[in-house]
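Chapter summary example.
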Amino acid sequence: MKKYGWVILAAFLIWLWPSSPHVNAAGADLFLDGRRVEAPADAKPEMVNGKIMVPLRVVGEQLGYQFKWEPQAYKISIQKNSTDMSMYVGRTSADVNGKTVNLDAPPVLRGNSTMVPLRFVGEQMGLKVDWNNKSKSVNLSQKAATQQADKQSQSQKSEQTLTQSTTSTQKLSTATETTINSAEVDKHTETALSPSKQQNVELSKANALLVQNITFDDEALRISLNKDITPKVFKMTGPDRIVVDLPEAALVSEFSQTFPIRDDGSRVLTNSNNEDVQEIRFAPTDGQNGGVRIVIVLNQARDYDLSKNSSGEITLQMRARNVDSVMTPTNVEGRRIVVIDPGHGGKDPGAGSVTGRHEKEFTLAVALKVEQLLRNDPDIQIVLTRNGDTYPTLDERPQIANNQQASVFVSIHGNSMPASNNGKANGSETYYARQESLGLATTMHRHLVDATGFKDNGIKVANHVVTRKSQMPAVLLECGYLSNLSNEAAMFTEETQEKIAEGIVDGLKEYLGTGTGTTESLN
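The structure predicted for these 523 residues follows.
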């Protein structure tokens, strides 16, 4: 009988699930715990083969997950605490802590986002999921899922409470009265309070100042509170830090518990791809009336602008650093500016080669040869993001091009694969991030492959910072594999470096329409 009961229940759940083709999720709104989550314009929730798909990274980053995208394998790895997941675009299964989990639909790429089935998000990330067909919105709730689990626990606690004596109940009530936290009142404790004390507790909760969410994106720290307050913000050194103090505030447990607590009592907010930010940590303070402190630990000093609104939203926007002086063209009149970016440099050596050389040496050597070839060109002015063993950050490199209003941005790199690949990977490939760069990528890749003579690995889309943030057509050239003995041996010869430089120049001239002939040799 139980067997048939489960069958009936499963059939009922499937009937409820919004998988019929007439439900249209395209462009739907996405909400997490009642708060709208902004998804990229090209990665809104949508219906794919009858299954609602949502942007995995957008949802996951709100919950503190860490992501790694491997474009060559079309693989996305997700990690949080003791949970490790990996999935592949186009594959109907995922790996969760070493076990294979079947998916309702395979992940798909939309722009720079990976879309996954809504059911997977609910099951693997512990969320309650709901599709509202009337408002065309996807609603995710970690609170509801937590409350459901708490109810079971509280039910067990209630049974134990009923068996306790009146004296022990009074002791529990007295102890709770002196230690109660305004941010979270345990429901079990509430049942042990007298009506007058319960009223005081509810009043305390209503007046509490709560930190409901903290996020960091696009160099902006955003803090959501339930009330409008003015934070205390100041800078510190050794290391450089920006400190945000919220006196008398408390952390909402549903938010803070998303992040593991460290030995020092702080929690670390997941940070993504910012060269200047080392980490963002937050923790309750030891003040008499409580409080929360948020610290942005920096790799180098940055200024900021602070703003807030009446609904309790506080934004700390880091100011852009002025990098105009990093490299300035000597002559731009009547000439098209092209920014050449030798990858890595300084403290960042890049990939290591099979013979112990470094990627930063190769990229700079090729870039300097490109500059030499175009030094006296009447149509093109070259600007280098570095001309020595220095390290402009990933944000600075495209900013140089944007400040110069360049026509083209080209980043030079050497590729590598782990030792487990046994040096088999080889060849040249070209990456771009935005559709407007496809024409440049097509032209530059053809000349790159002709110059290296390596295997043609094609043109690929990837979300590299330098190509995404450049406001002009931009490409990243992976000239060859330093982990491949044959590729590496050629890449560190003057002859191959000169050929690659000549290929880059020929590609630039063809794309810009400034010349149709082949570049003269450096020799």
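To summarize the output: Residues 211-318 form a domain with the Immunoglobulin-like fold (CATH 2.60.40.3500).
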